[in-house]
Amino acid sequence: MSDTKSPLSPHLSIYRWPITMTLSILHRVTGVAMSVGLIVLGAWLMSAAAGAADYDRVASLLSSVIGRLMLIGFSFAFFLHLANGVRHLFWDVGYGFEKYQANASAWFVLLLASGMTAAFWTLL
Amino acid sequence: MVRAVVGEWNDGCVLDVAVKAGTRHFVAQRVTAILLVFLGLWFAGSIRGLDALAHGVVVAFVADPLNVFLLTLLTITLAYHSYLGVQVVIDDYVHAKGITVASHIASRLAHVLFALAAIYAIFRIGLGA
Questions:
Q1: Chain B residue numbers touching A38 (CB-CB < 8 A)
Q2: pLDDT in tens, B24-60
Q3: Considering only residues 54 to 113 of chain A, which have any Cβ-Cβ distance to chain B shorter than 8 Å?
Q4: Closest Cα to residue B83, out of B19, B25, B38, B24?
Q5: Is the CB of residue B70 less than 8 Å away from at least one CB of chain A?
Q6: Chain A partners of B48 at a C-beta cutoff of 8 Å?
Q7: pLDDT at residue B6 greater than cutoff 60
Q8: Which pLDDT tens digit goes with each residue over B74-89?
Q9: Is pLDDT of A52 > 70?
Q10: Lowest mean pLDDT, pick from A37-51, A65-79, B10-24, B69-83
Q11: How many CA atoms does the CB half-sphere of A50 hold within 13 Å?
Q12: Which of A15, A28, A63, A75 is the most buried (most CB within 10 A)?
């Protein structure tokens, strides 16, 4: 403890939040969000089976501003969980464990999910 | 291998079951994940463009026999994968044993209910009722 210039554990003053942590948290958050979202998927299918009148009521809810924001959120959650899930599958078979690889794949997953969400809602 | 190691210090009873259950959970989560990569992308591609999804269009899509099969498979896989995920989340954050058990039962019921409702809807449309 003679050299007080070097930072002491846990180095909170020089701590930099790693992107891999963000992805870990997002994977769980998007998973839980989609689990709740199954209610919407079930309601949508049930309304389609019930007939045009019921379906149109649900569809108009889903195409309201809040409905659209929710669906955009679900689509991003889906693409992010999907892309990050594939990242996890690569880890499962032993690839991509180096720190630089994990950081790069984290950014790649974020960009890919954002791009897929944008494409989903804009491209024909 | 794992079974032998565990058996040495636990007579292969309780922990052996726990280890196997853990492996089953791990494998099931990955098998459903791989299925969902394909089924999920297929579904996302199919429903793209909410404005075009008029009732007649959706019913015609769901009524196709191949889509009845794929949507049913998607429903079961989604429900199972979601159940497995929620199970982990409950175990991570709920520590009181009674509430943990109750949460697992509630989650199981909710997922079974979702799957039954969705499959009922798919087949009702598929059979043209």
A1: 78-79, 82, 111, 114
A2: 999 999 999 999 999 999 999 999 855 678 999 999 9
A3: 55-56, 59, 62-63, 68, 71, 75, 78-79, 82, 85-86, 88-89, 92
A4: B25
A5: no
A6: 120
A7: no
A8: 999 999 999 999 999 9
A9: yes
A10: B10-24
A11: 15
A12: A75
- Find out if CATH 3.40.50.360 is the number for domain B2-126: no
Q: How far apart are CA B121 and CA B101, in angstroms?
A: 30
Q: What letter represents residue B13's amino acid?
A: C
Say yes or no for a CB contact (<8 Å) between B41 and A48.
Answer: no
Q: Do B125 and A78 touch (CB under 8 A)?
A: no
Instruction: Say which residues have a Cβ less than 8 Å from residue B28's Cβ, sequence separation at least 6.
Output: B80, B84
Classify the complex by whether its ipTM is higher than 0.95, answering yes or no. Answer: no
pLDDT above 80 for B118:
yes
User: What pTM was estimated for this model as a whole?
Assistant: 0.87
List the single residue in B with minimal CA-CA distance to A25: B89
